[in-house]
Amino acid sequence: MNIQIKNIPGKDCACDALILPFIEGQIKPSKDLGASVAALLRKISPDEFSGKKNEVLLLPAPADIKPGRLLLLGLGEKEKIGPEVLRQAGGKALAHLRTAGIREVALSLPATPGNDLSAVYFIEGGLLGLYTYDLYKTEKETREIRKITLLSKPLKALSDGIRTMEVLASAVCFARDLVNAPSNTMTPTHLAGAALALGGKDVSVTVLERKDAEKLGMGAYLSVSKGSDEPPKFIVLEYRGSKKDPLILIGKSVTFDSGGLSIKPSDGLEKMKYDMAGGAAVLGLIRAVSLLRLPVHIIGILPATENLPGGSATRPGDVVRTLGGMTVEIINTDAEGRLTLADALGYAKRFKPHAVIDIATLTGACAIAFGGEAVAMMGNNRSVMEVIKESADFVNERVWEMPLFDEYREYLKSDVADIKNIGGRTGSLATSAKFLSEFAGDTPWAHLDIAGTAWTEKDKPYTPKGASGIGVRLLFDIIRRMQ
Ligand code: BES
Ligand code: MN
Ligand code: ZN
Fold it and tell me: What pLDDT, in 10s, does the model give residues 59-73?
């Protein structure tokens, strides 16, 4: 998409449609639109358009101005207008215009006082909302918005903001593509290929094979892969844009989770391809950070594997030894994510990180608790969690903290090993994180459970149904705050 900034009045901008945003109940044209637009707007009744949030009305433009049509766009109540309202407006407006076959768009968004960057959020929502996944469709969507002209003074902050947002939105769409890909193509090997493709001058990528992981003693991670013919790939990426201690990001990367021998019911099982959404978010993040050359030091770890119930699969009751030496009794082979993360957390320690954040579609209980509205957060470090919370509110990938009470450790006591991999039905969101905390040790660490938010069943204003790409924008903002 071609995005330009032009300092001309809307009525002089040659385009297929000019977007005119309005505050609810204030359907008055700005002076630079001229008398014909003012006359047109006077005729609009509140029943047709009143400026409610995400309301749209596409009209033919008067003949004496250059745009072909006008899209009236509602922003809702003035007091509530902020980044999120603008993202949603952008998503809604551009998707609506694409459906109408519009190709070239202009936006007349008056800068809100003290904030010249409103258009950046609008573009963010727009680019995210236009995402489609049609790789396997013979008939592709051919309608396309090719050009957006922002009618504004040429501010450097605006053009920089737009450039950053283009990279970030494309990283989110990259992550969505990885997650939407079916598991027969998105195998651990394929995911490793996607990681290797990010390698270059600033990013080094190492893929540990099964024998490497065996030598290191990653018995928990490897136990998950035993029932599958697909070889596991333990993927490590390093982006070194500063000499500081690294921030480590671990993404759960189970490319298909059948549950293993503790097999899942078949209803909805096809969706377990999204069990690598954490890993996809980490790859998207590294892509954005490296393209923008941010002055940060990030290490991404993706312990990729399938979880299948083959003849060599791990059995309930098996005991494995983790990289750190702790033994785990595997009660339920469907609690596999935490096994892969236990060894990834153990591996992370060698880099002496200043903090570790893991992001994982870890528990059904997370989706039960929050639906698609929040990411569950748990951790051992207040200041890391505070930064995450601020970022989450800002990018609207909201997190909600859950407790890590000492008592939860009791739930995980095993009769034969140091710990067992499930704590029973009750408290299972908290005990999944309690399990991980044993492997984080005293490294400053936070865990993000995205089981409820990584996939959406219905279209949202700037998140079409399917993979949401959650985590990329959140991690990106966290890194900017931490740097
Ligand atoms: N990948 C699943 C969690 C999940 C469920 C993600 C639904 C997205 C949607 C995870 O590996 C899992 O199976 N967790 C079990 C743990 C249980 C056996 C303790 C769960 O939550 O049911
Ligand atoms: Mn599972
Ligand atoms: Zn899983």
Answer: 999 999 999 999 999
